């Protein structure tokens, strides 16, 4: 089969690799019908995730059709149309039993990380019963694949961790796909204001379309904008959706005493925690890997029209156009790309 493989920082290839096989009774092999590219894949290609070994098939998001299942798989059968979660969960370990599937002792983020992923014709999915979701018949592939990662990540690691509440002032730093998903899901809680901060004018325009009330360039002193908006108090919540030291530090300066900073971004370099300024401000700072515990809820919202996920998709390609899709996705300032989807 064909797959997109990583061969060290800056090196990727669309090439022939062996077809996946059932390795464990709880596995399923799924034909990939739609997949996408994540900002985390770009971090891998920059060398920010050193545990990814050369030769690894990238990708951790897909919708597909079950081809084969292991003898221990009870809830999936060949022919089922499924959403493949970015998180692999055994469902039995101590972490899974508390719903923190991202910290699964035998899983977590494995696809495209420690095992071969979804940017391929076929993928092996461990723990298929608990790592896939049946897709309602009236939900399009390109909408469903947005629930593999960006929407649950933004909702859980961003909005829920930041404890967004009605009437809050929320700042989202970074208006890429994750930041836009955070804006969209934050609106479920009726905040008074959502402020989006980014450097790219096109992404600030996108933030307006996705529900930001105020947009501000990172070069235009967002600290002052937030201070004026809140009477000098600061935001109730700040969500970091870039993965850069200056963005994280900006978030810690924009929240009020007692406020929340939720870090979503994947950081490849250290960030400074200014405890000399923060120790007395009663801040809560959270980090995290998505658990995908919200995926069933988001799927129900998608199926009933309460959530519009297709609006994230700006470019569509065939699977064989993987290299072109990466080129478009990696240059959003030039291409206007938010999410690209590749179809069989």
From TrEMBL:
Statement: the UniProt record of this protein carries the keyword Coiled coil: no
Q: Which InterPro entries match?
A: ADH-like_C, ADH-like_N, ADH_Zn_CS, ER, GroES-like_sf, NAD(P)-bd_dom_sf
Q: Where is the Enoyl reductase (ER) domain?
A: 10-342
Cite the SMART domains for this sequence.
Answer: PKS_ER
Query: Pfam families of this UniProt entry?
Result: ADH_N, ADH_zinc_N
Q: Which UniProt keywords apply?
A: Metal-binding, Oxidoreductase, Zinc
The protein's required cofactors: Zn(2+)
Gene3D superfamilies xref list: Medium-chain alcohol dehydrogenases, catalytic domain, NAD(P)-binding Rossmann-like Domain
Q: Which family does it belong to?
A: Belongs to the zinc-containing alcohol dehydrogenase family.
Name of the protein in question:
Zinc-dependent alcohol dehydrogenase family protein
> Which organism does this record belong to?
Allokutzneria oryzae
Q: Where is the organism placed in the taxonomic lineage, from the top? A: Bacteria, Bacillati, Actinomycetota, Actinomycetes, Pseudonocardiales
């Amino acid at each position: 089969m064909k797959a997109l493989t990583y061969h060290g920082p800056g090196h990727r290839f669309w090439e022939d690799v062996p077809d996946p096989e059932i390795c464990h009774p709880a596995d399923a092999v799924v034909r990939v019908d739609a997949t996408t590219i994540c900002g985390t894949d770009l971090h891998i290609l920059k060398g920010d995730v050193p545990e990814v070994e050369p030769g690894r098939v990238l990708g951790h998001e897909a919708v597909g059709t079950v081809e084969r299942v292991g003898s221990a798989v009870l809830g999936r059968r060949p022919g089922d149309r499924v959403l493949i979660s970015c998180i692999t969960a055994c469902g039995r370990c101590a972490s899974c039993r508390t719903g923190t599937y991202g910290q699964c002792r035998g899983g977590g983020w494995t696809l495209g990380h420690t095992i071969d992923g979804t940017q391929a014709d076929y993928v092996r999915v461990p723990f298929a019963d608990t790592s896939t979701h049946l897709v309602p018949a009236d939900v399009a592939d390109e909408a469903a694949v947005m629930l593999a990662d960006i929407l649950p990540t933004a909702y859980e690691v961003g909005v829920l961790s930041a404890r967004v509440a009605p009437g809050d002032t929320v700042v989202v730093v970074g208006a890429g796909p994750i930041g836009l998903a955070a804006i969209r899901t934050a609106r479920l809680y009726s905040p008074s204001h959502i402020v989006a901060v980014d450097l790219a004018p096109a992404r600030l325009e996108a933030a307006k379309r996705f529900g930001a009330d105020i947009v501000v360039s990172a070069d235009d002193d967002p600290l002052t904008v937030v201070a004026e908006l809140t009477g000098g108090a600061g935001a109730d919540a700040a969500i970091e959706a870039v993965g850069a030291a200056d963005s994280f530090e900006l978030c810690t300066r924009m929240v009020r005493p007692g406020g929340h900073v939720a870090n979503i971004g994947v950081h490849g370099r250290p960030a400074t925690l200014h405890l000399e300024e923060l120790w007395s401000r009663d801040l809560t700072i959270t980090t995290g890997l998505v658990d995908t515990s919200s995926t069933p809820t988001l799927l129900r919202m998608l199926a009933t029209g309460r959530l519009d996920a297709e609006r994230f998709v700006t470019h569509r390609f065939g699977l064989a156009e993987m290299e072109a899709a990466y080129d478009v996705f990696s240059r959003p300032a030039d291409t206007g790309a938010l999410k690209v989807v590749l179809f069989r």
